[in-house]
Amino acid sequence: MASVAALRLVVLLAAAVPLLPPPAASLAVTSTYVRPTARATLSVLHDGDGRTPQQVHISAVGSDKMRVTWITDDDAPATVEYGTVSGEYPFSAAGNTTTYSYVLYHSGNIHDVVIGPLKPSTTYFYRCSNDTSRELSFRTPPASLPFKFVVVGDLGQTGWTASTLRHVAADDYDMLLLPGDLSYADFYQPRWDTFGRLVEPLASARPWMVTEGNHEVERIPVIHPRPFTAYDARWRMPHDAGASPSGSNLYYSFDVAGGAVHVVMLGSYAGYAAGSAQHRWLRRDLAGVDRAKTAFVVALVHAPWYNSNRAHRGEGDAMRAAMEELLYGARVDAVFAGHVHAYERFARVYGGGEDACGPVHVTVGDGGNREGLATRYVDPQPAASAFREASFGHGRLEVVNATHALWTWRRNDDDEAVVADEVWITSLASNPACNKKDSISLY
Question: Where is the Purple acid phosphatase C-terminal domain (predicted)?
Answer without folding.
Answer: 358-421
